[in-house]
Every structure is written in C-alpha cells, then in structure tokens.
User: Fold this.
Amino acid sequence: MKKAWLFVILAAALAGCGKPQPPVGKWEGGYESGGDLVVARVEILPSGQVRVMAPDITNAMGSREQMNEFRARISADLANGWSEVAPRSFDFDGKTFRKPGGIAPQMVWDKASNHMTLELYIGARAAMPVPLRPVDDFHDNPFASG
Assistant:
C-alpha cells in the first residue's frame, strides 16, 4: 500500500513539473504618456503561439484634437493590419513571455486579474509597459473600450 501512495505522490509531483501553458485569449489596450502613443493587440492561440501587434507614435505633440487624430490613426493601422499578423512562438514560464532563448520580457501576464502587460522596446529606451485588458473580441478603438 505504501508503494501505491508513493507512486501517486511521485506521479502528481512530475505532472506539476510540466512546462506552463500560456493563457488562451485576447488582450488589447492603448497607452499615452509623454508624447508616446501605442495601441496593441495580443492573441494567444490554443497552440500557444502568439499574435501581437503594437503600432506606435513617439514624440507626438499637439492639441488634444491633434492627439485624438493620432490615436485614431494608429487604432486604424492596428485594425487594418491585424489580419496580416502571423503567429509566433515565445518562451513562457507561467508569468513572463520571452523570445525563444531570450532574456528580456516581452509580455507579463497577471493570472489573478487576467491582464497582460506588453513590454514595448522602442530604440535604445527602456521597455515601455503597455497595459492590456482581456477582451472577448477586438475593438476598432482600443483606447475607448472598457
């Protein structure tokens, strides 16, 4: 009987050591700060592959009306270009997505809230965290969706 329990415990321990599976779903969001505008979509497929797109404008300055025009332009770029985005693989440790074999975080998933943060690298700058919320379907304007 002890051997049977030992086998059950060992099997359960080994099952827990498997590679974490990425969450399947869709996330989107918009970010504006200090002249930087970003809209982003992430879709994680059942295969674990990821589709991601994040058009941006840096050093955007102007009136609120001009900034809204910039927002509308990159939102349209995202919606119009999404169908061309090919899925790709990432390493996933249960929380952080990295390029295969890479070190820098590309996305961070909060399991408790099911929110995703896209780590956007523009030029030589530090990563820009772009918060994304889970959605059932993507919206034409990720800034406006709730």
Remarks:
- The chain has one domain: 22-135.
- The first strand starts at residue 25 and ends at 33.
- Residues 22-135 form one domain.
- The CA atoms of residues 62 and 121 lie 24 Å apart.
